[in-house]
Every structure is written in structure tokens, then in C-alpha cells.
Amino acid sequence: MRILLLGFGNVGRAFCELVRNKSGVLKSSYGIDCRFVGIATRSRGCVSDPEGIRIQDLLERDSSTGRLDPGTAGSAALSAGDMVSGMDYDLLVVCTSTTIKSPEVPTAYIKGALERGIGVITSNKGPLFLACRELMDLANRKNTHFFFEAAVMGGTPFFSFARHCLTGSKILSCEGVMNTTSNYILDLMVTGSSFDDALLDARRKGFAEADPTFDVEGWDSAVKGAIIAQVLMGAAPVALESINVQGITQVSLGFLMEAVRSGGAVRLITRVEAEGDSVSISVRPEVLPAANPLSRVHGATNGVLFLTDTLGEVFVAGGGIGPRHTAYSMLRDLIETVELINAKK
Ligand SMILES: NC(=O)c1ccc[n+]([C@@H]2O[C@H](COP(=O)([O-])OP(=O)(O)OC[C@H]3O[C@@H](n4cnc5c(N)ncnc54)[C@H](OP(=O)(O)O)[C@@H]3O)[C@@H](O)[C@H]2O)c1
User: Is the C-beta atom of 323 inside 6 A of ligand 1?
Assistant: First the structure.
């Protein structure tokens, strides 16, 4: 399995390390022998080696020089785009930075590999928000695979759960706690923190981005809802502005305590519901009764309640956030990709 990796930040590095640490089990249990033949960043260089890049050397060079390549002036380095279109590889792994407003570049990388009949795994939400169905259809047409478990709710099994455990079911709705930063803040506020102090704490612990607006104003949850609507309910892509979004910035202590007194909790809920031929998506803080399992999704964790035509309600929760958990979701996608390729042989 020759891997071309785009993005060598927190997730890219964690993925390389996980693949290296799991090389024994990948080989013995799944017959997978992975090597990274190309790794690209936006501004810190690109490296390639058909025989396999020595990850330890790369990590050391990265930490000492901040670059992947030796950075020799005048050397004609490949770009990420060149690598996608020109190199020989079996799987493209995209963990470049997410940009919801202009995800055209990573989308083009993904299309470039799929067009060549090469499978793709991504942790980047941008291309999914823009064109998830189109990319899935392209993968089908090219008889290859496109997986993105890591892009929505990090390490919580979600799309793979729906794919494997709800096979043959119709998913009528999906509601969940999908933004860990907001959830963490709401929990701290219940214990007496102000919104600002709770946000500072979330930042210190590495849960919140330097600019947390996208999280606390509900937009990150809305993007996830829009992707879920496309993947699980066949909806078309929507403009972010068309989604009914309310974040947690206006949640008062009184509102939170009222919920706690009644035994429940306030949670930022993303709701995706099939309504006839259309799908509605909304994000807002809601008071949930104790009987609702989402009221027990605490801190920096995720939880989703599926409503299906076969099993009724099915609840999935996961604590998986951060680069290592995200990398694990990509490893799971990698194994599934290889199993599907092998099944065709
Ligand atoms: N961190 C998490 O826990 C987590 C969880 C779930 C999903 N994700 C998603 O996973 C992705 C990666 O996250 P991260 O935390 O690893 O981000 P990060 O640390 O900022 O790393 C992003 C990497 O992508 C590279 N990059 C950006 N644009 C590129 C381009 N056009 N071509 C090639 N490389 C490009 C960057 O290059 P430079 O090094 O030159 O800047 C950097 O190496 C994001 O989409 C994020 O939303 C992250």
C-alpha cells in the first residue's frame, strides 16, 4: 500500500506514527504493508521516495528545521498537485487544513486521485461540505473508494457505524452533540465558570481553536449537519447561511441551571431530519430531559442519536477527539479500503 499523504500537521504526523506503530498488526492481521511514497505540505516542502520515506528521519528534520525537504535553494520540488496527478501510489490521504469558505484546492486533489481510480481518505471537512455526494459518486464510477470517518466527530465511530451497523435501515433523523468545544464550555459553566473563563480553559487544554468563533457560534456543527444530510440522507449541498444556526454564546447561567434542576442538561444539538423529499438541518442549544442519552454526553466528547425505521433509536457516543483519535479513524478507513480492494481480486 503506497500512500501519498497531503498535510503533515497534527493529524498527518499522528497518522504516520500510528501507521508505523501498527505496522505489525497491519501486516499480520490484514496483510497490509504500508509505505509513504510522498508527503506534501503547503509551505514546508514536499518529499517523495518510491521505496518509502523514512518517517523517523522526516520527523527529526521537521522538528529541527521546520521543513520536510532539505530546502535547498533552487531545487525543483514537486507540489502537492504534481504529486497527486503524476506519482505512482495506491491511496491518497488528505489531512490538509480545513477551509469551509474555499475548499476548492483539497477538493481538486481528491478528485484528481479518484479520477485516476485511486482511493482517498480525508479528515478535511471542506471538500465534503462542498461536494460530498459528487465525490462519492465519482469514487463509485471509478470503481474505487472514498472514506472520511475522521472528518466528522474525529474518533467517534459514526459513518462507519451507519454503514456497517445500520445496513438496510432508513435513517429518519440524526441528532447529536457534535462540537466538543461547545460541550466542554457548557459543562464548565454549570459548575460556575463564566463563558469567557470556560473558553479560556478549553483553549488551554487544546480543545478550542485560536479563533473559536466557528465552534461556539454553531457553524462547525452546521457544517457537520450538512455533510451528514448529504451522506446519510442523499441531500444536496447547501449554503451555510441557509441553515438555522444558533450557537452557545447567548446561553445564560439561568437557562443552564433550570435544565440541571429538572435533572437534564443543555446541549448544543445538531438536528438532521428527513422531511418527505427534503432534509432539514438546524443547530441550537436545547434543554434535554435526563431520559435523553444526549444529556449525558459530557465534556469534550461527542454523541449521536439515530432514529431508524428498523431499530427505532440507536445511540452512539465517543470520547475520541484530538490528532491521535482522528488518525485512528483514518487507519480504520485504510483497513476497510484494503479489504474492499482485496475482496475484488
Ligand atoms: N486536529 C484534530 O484533532 C482534528 C480532528 C478532526 C479533523 N481534523 C481535520 O484534519 C485536518 C488536519 O488537521 P491538523 O490539526 O493536522 O491541521 P494542521 O496542524 O494545521 O496541519 C495542516 C497541514 O496541511 C498542510 N496543508 C494545508 N494546505 C495544503 C495544501 N493545499 N497542500 C498541501 N498541504 C497543505 C499544512 O501545510 P503547512 O505545514 O505548510 O502549513 C499542514 O502541514 C483539518 O482539515 C482538520 O479540520 C483535525
Answer: yes
